[in-house]
C-alpha cells in the first residue's frame, strides 16, 4: 500500500492505531491535514487526542497503520520529523528555574538555529510573547498566560512549517485564551500548518477544519459549518414562553420531540423535523395555558452537534452490546 | 552536535548551581561532613571507664590498679564496695570494665602461687571490649615482668635476662595505627558516591516528572548529547568535592599524602564513571524522583558495607566476597588508601584502575541503552 503523495498534505494518516496492551487508545484513524490550515482535533478527555499527537511528533510508536508528517514517515523518520515541527504540550514544559532568555537560548541551541539567525529569532520570540521587559525574569515567576506564550515562542524558534499544540490553552482564562488564538492565527497567516487538540467548543469554532475523536475513533470530519449543517441528525427548535420551567415538561411530552432542555429562559427541543413540529407544539402549549412567543428553528452550536454525535455513537454501541448478549 | 551539548551543559550547570540550597548541599555539606566524621569515626579505644572492686586493699593491689590507671587506657570512674554494684555499673554503662581483686591478692603474690585478678567486660560493644581486653592483657603482662624483675634483682642480685623471644612490631604506612588515617580517605569515597549517585539518579527522572522531558524529546537532540549533558556536570562537581575533601584530609587531619595526587584524580575519574553510570541507570528505570531516591539508597547501603571500608572483605563468606568484585567502591578505596598512605603508583594500582574502567563503561552504556527518546 503506498501513501498518498505528501506534497500538498502536511499530515496524512491511514489506519493509524495505538494499543497499550489490550486497550486501544487510537483505533484506525485516517485523515489528512492540508498545508497552512488550522486543524482542530476535538474530543473528550481520554478520547485519544494526546496519543495521536504524540505519534505524529515521534514521541510514540504506532502499533498499526501508516502516517506522514511534512512528507516524512512517522515510523521510520521520527528524528527527521523533529527538525521540522514545533510541539507544545498541555503541561507547561520550559524550565522554571531558568530565565526567559536562558530558556530561549537553550532551545535555540538545541534546535541548531543558525548563529546568524539566533538574535533575530530571540527578538522575535520576546516580541511575540511580549516579554521584552522580562527577559531576565525566572520563568517560574511568570503568570500562566505569559508562560504559554513563551512556550509557543520556543516551539517556533527554528521556524517550523508545522506546529502541534496539545491542549495549549487548558487552565488559562478566556481573555488569555483569545489572545493566544490571535497568535495561532498569525502563525497560520504566515503559512504554518497548525494541528491543535482541544476540548473547548469555542476554540473549535476558530479552526478551519475539525476532526471529532471519541474512544479512539474518528467520529466526524469537516469544517465547523459543515458539521453544524449536515452532520447533526436532529434539528433544534427554540421556544420562548412566559413560564418556561413549567412548560418544559409539557413540551417534552409532545410527539416528535426527542429531547428538551432549558437554555436560559428558552426551551431547546431536539427533533427530526422542525417544520412539522413547530405548529403542533405551539397549539399544545397554548391549549395548556402558556403564552407562547416565538417558535423558531435555530442553527445548532458545535456543542449541540458533538453531544448529539457522541450520544448517537453511545446508543449504537449500546444497541450492539445488547444484540450481542 | 557540539553546540547542542554545550547548551545542555550550560543549562544543567545553571540549574544545579543557581539554587543556594543546592550549592550548600554540594559544596558545604561534604566539607562539614568530612570534618565531623573525621573526628567521630575512630576505632581507637582510649580512656575506657573502669570500676574497681578491691577487696584486698593492700599496697600490692593498689599497685596493680594504678598500673592500669597510669596506662591512659583505663580511667577509674568508681570504686565499688559490694558484689551487687558490679552489675549496676555495667548495666548503666557507667563503666565498661570492672577490675576485681579478691582478699589475699597480695598474700598470694608474695608467696609462690599465682595471684588472680578478675577482669569483667561489657561485651555488648564487641569492638571496644576486645580492644580493652588486649590492653588489659598487655598491662598485666607488663606488670608481671616488672614484679619478676624486682624479685630477681632482690633475691639473686642479677638482672633479668632478655625474654626468649622478643617481638618487635612496627606498622608500616600508619606507624601509630591511627584509625583516622585509615578512615578519613574512606569517607571521601563515600561522600563522593552519595553526591554523584543521588544527583544523577534524580537528573532524568526529574525532567520526566516536571514534564520538560516531553519537550526535550520532540527536539532533534541526540541521545548521546543528552546523556553526556546529564553526566559531565555531575562529574565536574564530583571532582571539585574530591579536591576539597582531599585538601581537608591532608591539611586539617594531617593524613599523609605520600603518592602523586594526579593518580588520585585519575582513579576518581574512573570511579565517577561507575557512580554516574549507576545513578543514570536508576534514573532511567524510575518513574518518580522518590523512587529514584529509594533505589539509590538501596544501592549505596550494601555498596558501603561490602567495600572493605569498615569490614574487611577477607572475613566475608566467599559468595559475598565474589559480589564485592562488582562494587566500584571496593577498588576506589584501594586506590585512595594506596595513594594517601602508601604512595603507590600505577604500576601497583593498575588492576583497580582497569576494573573501574570496565565497570564504569558497562554501567554508562547500560544506562545510555535504556534511555529512549520515545515514551512507553
TrEMBL record, chain A:
Keywords: ATP-binding, Nucleotide-binding. Residues 11-240 form the ABC transporter domain. GO terms for molecular function: ATP binding. InterPro entries: AAA+_ATPase (IPR003593), ABC_transporter-like_ATP-bd (IPR003439), P-loop_NTPase (IPR027417). The keyword ATP-binding applies. It comes from the Bacteria. The keyword Nucleotide-binding applies. It holds the Pfam family ABC_tran. PANTHER family: ABC TRANSPORTER G FAMILY MEMBER 20 ISOFORM X1 (PTHR43038:SF3), ATP-BINDING CASSETTE, SUB-FAMILY H, MEMBER 1 (PTHR43038). This is ABC transporter ATP-binding protein. It comes from Geothrix rubra. The lineage of its organism: Bacteria, Pseudomonadati, Acidobacteriota, Holophagae, Holophagales.
UniProtKB/TrEMBL annotation, chain B:
Coiled coil: none annotated. Belongs to the ABC-2 integral membrane protein family. InterPro entries: ABC-2_transporter_component, ABC2_TM, ABC2_TM_bact-type. The keyword Ion transport does not apply. This is Transport permease protein. It is a multi-pass membrane protein. The gene is ybhR. Residues 145-374 form the ABC transmembrane type-2 domain. Pfam families: ABC2_membrane_3. It is found in: Cell membrane. Its main location: membrane. Keywords: Cell membrane, Membrane, Transmembrane, Transmembrane helix, Transport. The chain crosses the membrane at residues 21-41, 182-205, 226-253, 259-282, 294-314, 349-368. It comes from Geothrix rubra.
Amino acid at each position: 500500500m503506498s501513501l498518498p503523495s505528501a506534497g500538498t498534505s502536511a499530515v496524512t494518516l491511514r489506519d493509524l492505531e495505538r494499543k497499550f496492551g489490550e486497550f486501544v487508545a487510537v483505533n484506525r484513524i485516517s485523515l489528512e491535514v492540508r498545508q497552512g490550515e488550522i486543524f482542530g482535533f476535538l474530543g473528550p478527555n481520554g478520547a485519544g487526542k494526546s496519543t495521536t499527537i504524540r505519534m505524529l511528533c515521534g514521541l510514540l510508536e504506532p502499533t498499526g497503520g501508516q502516517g506522514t508528517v511534512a512528507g516524512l514517515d512517522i515510523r521510520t523518520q521520527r528524528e527527521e520529523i523533529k527538525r521540522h515541527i514545533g510541539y507544545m504540550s498541555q503541561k507547561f514544559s520550559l524550565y522554571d528555574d531558568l530565565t526567559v532568555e536562558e530558556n530561549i537560548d537553550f532551545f535555540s541551541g538545541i534546535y541548531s538555529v543558525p548563529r546568524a539567525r539566533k538574535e533575530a529569532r530571540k527578538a522575535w520570540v520576546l516580541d511575540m510573547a511580549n516579554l521584552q521587559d522580562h527577559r531576565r525574569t525566572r520563568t517560574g515567576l511568570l503568570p500562566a498566560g505569559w508562560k504559554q506564550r513563551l512556550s509557543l515562542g520556543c516551539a517556533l524558534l527554528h521556524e517550523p512549517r508545522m506546529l502541534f499544540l496539545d491542549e495549549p490553552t487548558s487552565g488559562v482564562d478566556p481573555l488569555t485564551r483569545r489572545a493566544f488564538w490571535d497568535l495561532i492565527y498569525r502563525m497560520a497567516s504566515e503559512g504554518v500548518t497548525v494541528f491543535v487538540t482541544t476540548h473547548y467548543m469555542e476554540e473549535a469554532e476558530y479552526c478551519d477544519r475539525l476532526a471529532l475523536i471519541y474512544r479512539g475513533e474518528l467520529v466526524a470530519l469537516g469544517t465547523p459549518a459543515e458539521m453544524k449543517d449536515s452532520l447533526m441528525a436532529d434539528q433544534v427548535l427554540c421556544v420562548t414562553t412566559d413560564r418556561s420551567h413549567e412548560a418544559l415538561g409539557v413540551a417534552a411530552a409532545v410527539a416528535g420531540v426527542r429531547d428538551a432542555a432549558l437554555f436560559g429562559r428558552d426551551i431547546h427541543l431536539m427533533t427530526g423535523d422542525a417544520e412539522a413540529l413547530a405548529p403542533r407544539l405551539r397549539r399544545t402549549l397554548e391549549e395548556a395555558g402558556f403564552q407562547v412567543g416565538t417558535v423558531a428553528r435555530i442553527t445548532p452550536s458545535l456543542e449541540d452537534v458533538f453531544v448529539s454525535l457522541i450520544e448517537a455513537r453511545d446508543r449504537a454501541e449500546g444497541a450492539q452490546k445488547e444484540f450481542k448478549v | 552536535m557540539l553546540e547542542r551539548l554545550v547548551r545542555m551543559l550550560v543549562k544543567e550547570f545553571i540549574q544545579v548551581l543557581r539554587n543556594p540550597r543546592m550549592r550548600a548541599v554540594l559544596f558545604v555539606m561534604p566539607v562539614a561532613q568530612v570534618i565531623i566524621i573525621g573526628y567521630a569515626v575512630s576505632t581507637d579505644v582510649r580512656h575506657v571507664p573502669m570500676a574497681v572492686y578491691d577487696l584486698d586493699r593492700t599496697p600490692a593491689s593498689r599497685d596493680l590498679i594504678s598500673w592500669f590507671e597510669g596506662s591512659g587506657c583505663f580511667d577509674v570512674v568508681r570504686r565499688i564496695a559490694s558484689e551487687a554494684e558490679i552489675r549496676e555499673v555495667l548495666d548503666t554503662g557507667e563503666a565498661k570494665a570492672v577490675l576485681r581483686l579478691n582478699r589475699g591478692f597480695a598474700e598470694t603474690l608474695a608467696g609462690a602461687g599465682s595471684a588472680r585478678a578478675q577482669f569483667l567486660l561489657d561485651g555488648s560493644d564487641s569492638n571496644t571490649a576486645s580492644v580493652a581486653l588486649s590492653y588489659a592483657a598487655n598491662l598485666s603482662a607488663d606488670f608481671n615482668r616488672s614484679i619478676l624483675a624486682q624479685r630477681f634483682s632482690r633475691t639473686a642480685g642479677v638482672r633479668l635476662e632478655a625474654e626468649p623471644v622478643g617481638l618487635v612490631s612496627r606498622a608500616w604506612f600508619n606507624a601509630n595505627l591511627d584509625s583516622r588515617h585509615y578512615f578519613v580517605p574512606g569517607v571521601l569515597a563515600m561522600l563522593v558516591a552519595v553526591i554523584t549517585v543521588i544527583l544523577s539518579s534524580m537528573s532524568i527522572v526529574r525532567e520526566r516528572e516536571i514534564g520538560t522531558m516531553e519537550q526535550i524529546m520532540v527536539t532533534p537532540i541526540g541521545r548521546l548529547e543528552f546523556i553526556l549533558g546529564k553526566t559531565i556536570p555531575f562529574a565536574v562537581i564530583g571532582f571539585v568535592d574530591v579536591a576539597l575533601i582531599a585538601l581537608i584530609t591532608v591539611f586539617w587531619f594531617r593524613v599523609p599524602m605520600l603518592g602523586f595526587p594526579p593518580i588520585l584524580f585519575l582513579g576518581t575519574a574512573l570511579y565517577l564513571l561507575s557512580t554516574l553510570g549507576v545513578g543514570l541507570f536508576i534514573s532511567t528505570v524510575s518513574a518518580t524522583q522518590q523512587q529514584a531516591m529509594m533505589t539509590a539508597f538501596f544501592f549505596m547501603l550494601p555498596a558501603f558495607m561490602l567495600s572493605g571500608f569498615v569490614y574487611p572483605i577477607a572475613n566475608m563468606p566467599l559468595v559475598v566476597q565474589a559480589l564485592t568484585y562488582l562494587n566500584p567502591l571496593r577498588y576506589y578505596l584501594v586506590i585512595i588508601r594506596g595513594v594517601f598512605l602508601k604512595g603507590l603508583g600505577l604500576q601497583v594500582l593498575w588492576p583497580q584502575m582497569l576494573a573501574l574502567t570496565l565497570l564504569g563503561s558497562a554501567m554508562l552504556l547500560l544506562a545510555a541503552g535504556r534511555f529512549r527518546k520515545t515514551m512507553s
